[in-house]
């Protein structure tokens, strides 16, 4: 058995439920070495990154197949700060697409937040929605939860 792809991320912070983003320096060190070894084994490698232009450039230099822009940090920002964070996310996504990296986004996303992310970064090819969708699926079933999410996204 082999994974169809590997997502490199930092260890979760104390009390956090999910792994955080790698920083740009990690993509020049051990993460780059791991990515190279996986790439040589024919396994595509992605990295979870903060929406930062230098981190995106580091992902290209490390020859990653794609990136997942970490959105958890922008979710709880006040409205006036969220606009700037969404703009940085859009800039990072556009740069990644220009550098021919596949782009996804994920972290604490629900339907409303997914709309904001896609609005800011239309080049995003996919989003990771997890706990919110799983919680809704427990109440109404997985088929309906996915159908409702798709309907909300239009």
Write the layout of secondary structure elements.
Elements: E1 6-8, H1 30-40, E2 45-49, H2 53-61, E3 66-70, H3 72-75, H4 79-98, E4 102-106, H5 111-120, E5 126-128, H6 131-140, H7 142-153
Parallel strand pairs: 1-2, 2-3, 3-4, 4-5
Helix pairs in contact: 2-4, 6-7
| Large-scale geometry | globular
Largest sheet: 5 strands, parallel
Q: Please indicate the count of domains.
A: 1
The CATH superfamily bears the name: Aldolase class I
Residues in helix, %: 40-55%
Would you identify the CATH architecture?
Answer: Alpha-Beta Barrel
Note the beta-strand portion. Answer: 5-15%
> Main sheet: which strands, in order across?
1-2-3-4-5
Describe this structure in words.
With 154 residues, this protein is of the alpha/beta class. It has a single domain (6-129), classed as Aldolase class I (TIM Barrel). The protein contains seven helices and five strands; from the N terminus they run βαβαβααβαβαα. It has a five-stranded parallel beta sheet with strand order 1-2-3-4-5. Helix 2 (53-61) runs parallel beside helix 4 (79-98) and helix 6 packs across helix 7. The longest helix has 20 residues, at 79-98. The N and C termini lie far apart (37 Å). The mean pLDDT is 90.
List keywords for this structure.
5 strands, 14% strand, globular, alpha/beta, TIM Barrel, single chain
Short account of what is shown:
The protein has helices spanning 30-40, 53-61, 72-75, 79-98, 111-120, 131-140, 142-153, and strands spanning 6-8, 45-49, 66-70, 102-106, 126-128. With 154 residues, the chain is α/β, with parallel strands linked by helices. It has a 5-stranded parallel sheet.
